[in-house]
Amino acid sequence: MRPLLIVLAAVIALKLGQQIFRYYAYQEERVTLTAMRERLIDAGVEVVTTRARADSLRVEIESTDRKLRESRRTVNRYGRYATGGALPGEVYGAYREDLLRYNDKVTERNKRLREYQQVVDRNHTATERYNFLADSMAGLAARIGDPYYPVPKPVEAAAERGLIRLPP
Predict the structure, then answer these.
(1) What's the rounded Cα separation, in Å, for the pair 6 and 94?
(2) Which of 46, 27, 32 is nearest to 137 (CA)?
(3) 2-25 vs 27-77: helix crossing angle, rounded to 10
(4) pLDDT in tens, 33-67
(5) 3-class SS at 83?
(6) Which residues contact 74 (CB under 8 A, 6 or more apart)?
(7) Which residues are CB-contacts of 39 (< 8 A; sequence separation ≥ 6)?
(8) Nearest C-alpha neighbor of 122 from the set 57, 62, 41, 43
(9) How far apart are the C-alpha atoms of 36 and 50, rounded to whole Å?
(10) What does the pLDDT read at residue 87?
(11) CB 26 within 8 A of CB 78
(12) Measured in whole angstroms, how far is the alpha carbon of residue 83 from the centre of its chain?
């Protein structure tokens, strides 16, 4: 029994010595990991927020498109009143108002589309930055002997910053 305790104590002492050595030997790397983690959290939050904004804009654009289809049908119906390519004077005023409303909706829809495209571009940039930092952190952690270093996912980053709540 005594030799077993001596072997166990030696193993524990060896493992403790390794941990103490790694603590001091890789101090700079741990500081770097901490700084990288903060940047990763920022990138993860941006991934989540830009994705949510893009989804919201996409739904808004799709809704506007449905309304535009109906408005377009309304404008096209005026063709029934045209004779020789011209609308009668009493119908032209209503046609002009409907056409202006339609064009205003198209202009607003196109603004939303440009905003959507910018948000998607920002999301892609944030995703690339997040992936680069996550890979860099995993590589650095593996080099210092901690291959299971926790790298938070974007949704976990957003939860850490209090933007969303994760289920328990």
Answers:
(1) 98
(2) 32
(3) 60
(4) 999 999 999 999 999 999 999 999 999 999 999 99
(5) strand
(6) 98, 102
(7) 129, 133
(8) 43
(9) 21
(10) 83
(11) no
(12) 53
Q: Determine phi and psi for 149, rounding to 5 degrees.
A: -60, 130
Query: How is residue 86 annotated by DSSP?
Result: B
CB atoms within 10 A of CB 4: 8
- Model pLDDT, residue 26: 78
DSSP state of 80: G
Confidence at residue 161, expressed as pLDDT on a 0 to 100 scale: 94
Write out the two tokens for 142. Answer: 């593996």
The per-residue pLDDT for range 82-140, each reduced to its tens digit, is 888 788 888 889 999 999 999 999 999 999 999 999 999 999 999 999 999 999 999 99
pTM greater than 0.85 (yes/no): no
* CA 81 – CA 154 distance, rounded (Å): 57
What gap in Å lies between CA 34 and CA 16, rounded to an integer?
A: 23
Q: Which two tokens stand for residue 63?
A: 């809704």
Using CA atoms, how far residue 17 sits from 10, 12, 13, 22, 118, in Å, is: 10, 8, 6, 9, 53
Specify which residues 83 forms β-bridges with: 86
